[in-house]
Amino acid sequence: MLFLLKLGKMFRKDKSGGNPGSGSSIFRLLPFVLIIPIFLFQALSLSGCTSTSPAIPSIYLVSLEPARSNLTTPTGIEIRINYFGICSDDGTTKRCISSAGGSGSTDAVTTTLFPTTPLNPNTTTTTSKNTSTAVTQSELKDLVSTALDLQSQIFISILAGSTFAFFVGLIFLFLYKRDLAKPNPSKPRRSALFRRATYGLIYLSVGLVFAAALATTETADALQFASRATDTPKILMHAGRTLQVLQWMAFGFSTLFALTVPVLVKPRAVGGVGFPKGGDV
Which end of the chain has fewer surrounding CB within 10 Å, N or C? Predict the structure, then answer.
């Protein structure tokens, strides 16, 4: 946050031309507002299913539940997975744990998510919902095993790479603007290096968040369809729409910010005279 404040102050200074608070200065500050929703949507997307805090369990890639022959009778048992977390719902209690990369054995994760059910393959557990049916411990272990496999082998956290690239890109943007404001004649290539790093990392972050949003949407929808296409499905899957919306919104705001970067680094006139040509993009 301190870094963002310093970055904003740098662009706010308009001693070289225009009065502070002028329409031009305000316009140049608007792109910084986009940084807040970008980090917000990406943080929410990455934190889904890591805790039972309000709304966090509702942010997930896919949910899994035991299937019944008619595909309409709910069991009351559900598991939701996200990039770094997994949640369970037995009809009465929601439990969430961190399981980055599908870490942890199936038995250990099953015991943590469903602690009231004995580890006996023939034991059944019945939820409190009136429409629920008995679920065996074997079914619970199959759910957990499938969820961990999906998390570690199918859904790779490309979004985390996008967040990292965007943050580092902002750092180089700060360095690039400072170098333009106080150029060092002894290091003429430094400004070009900062410029390339700024554009490269910010555009890379846009590409990665687009890849994450597209891959998640297509894969989750495909899993949902495939789980119902078989004659005797054992597990039903549902795509998490909230996460998809968050990731596409992150992509939209990231794209807008990337398009405004040329405006942010555009040289300002100094009493009718522009910056040196080296500051042009």
Answer: N
